[in-house]
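Encoded backbone
================
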Amino acid sequence: MTGKEILMAALRGSKTPRAPWVPFVGVHGGSLIGLDATAYLQSADAIVSALKQARDLYQPDGLPVVFDLQLEAEVLGCQLAWARETPPSVSSHPLQSGCDLSQLPAFSTEKGRIPLVLEAVRRLKTEMGDAVALYGLLTGPLTLALHLRGDEVLLDMFDDEDSVPELLDYCAGIACQMADAYLDAGVDVIAVVDPMISQIGPGHFSTYVAPPNNRIFDHVRARGALSSLFVCGNATRNLEAMAATRCDNISVDENVDMAALARIAAAAGKSFGGNLQLTVVLLLGDENDARRDAVRCLDQAGSSPGFVLAPGCDLPFAVKPENLQAVASLVRDPYQLQVARNLPAKVDSDDFADIEIPDYSAELAVIVDVVTLDSAGCAPCAYTVKAAQEAASAYGGAAEVREHKITGRDGLGYMKKLQVTAIPSICVDGREAFASIIPDRKDLIAALRCAADRK
């Protein structure tokens, strides 16, 4: 079997001779060819060149063409803030300014950067499409809705329930158009990437988010293709609700217990994938760290058919190629896998003693620490930071918001010392207050006032 055949069989839930391997090469592709993320995501030539290098270096069974959840939003009138090492972030929300759906620009897959991505798909199909399955990544309905309306969508689920289904159905329609364009260009798998699902509970997921997602999955199935629901962030509370949708595959990140997902996926007849650790292992660790973590994923997945080994989300720009190569060798070589199983456990000697957190009781202002992957490229992180900044502004007292990105050692030190349990999280004066959920502004302001009262 080719790698592509192994992956496609796994996605259908069939037993395979080994676990397929799908490194989610997004802006990391730019680092492989010496371009920053801004230049990389605006060039079909760059995307094709980088993914050919990724194929040769990482021996993948599948690859995403791009990992950019702003493609659709850009066409629909959202302004973007570009960065050197992450995909762009959305900096304006047209539905927040009194505009309604009818006033948004007409969506077309012939606008914005979508044509260059489709050109890359067609060229990559010719270059590697017989051996490597190509993924077309769509912005999920909830995440696109937040791009258009901001985090008020989450409040609307409580205060304006009638408006939410219309908006999410509109976003599902956009996704179906993107799916058609991707499939017509030659992709093999449609992945609905909806990281904002990690920020809601199963009730809201089942009521508001499952119906538009099922519309997309049904559309993809009617085209004869396979679909994946890919949620970055801590989706643990939504795993069973996600498994009840009509997707073929569920992919998650490192916040989720893979053994628990394996049980839930098996009961629902789904394939499943994940969840190599992005920062502490692939970005900041060494080859043996990568091998150990791959063994963890494989062992937690167990003997259930349909497991796909993959990073938990879009690879960081500067991830170490040798770490991904170590995973690729292990997946394809049973001897390398056995050697990795016998590696001694890593001794974590870094106590971050040099990283000092404030004496919060002595600070004049209430300190809001937001621990993120990186708000420049992670949608839940961006909206969490924004929620903290807006609450601090509306609070009325002295409050200071500080972001700590775990893509660096300082951020990891804060994460450890503040005992943060999930990413993104908000800590108020040194206490974790909101873990992997964007709080209502009133609740966050109340937390600020309680912290001020303790001073």
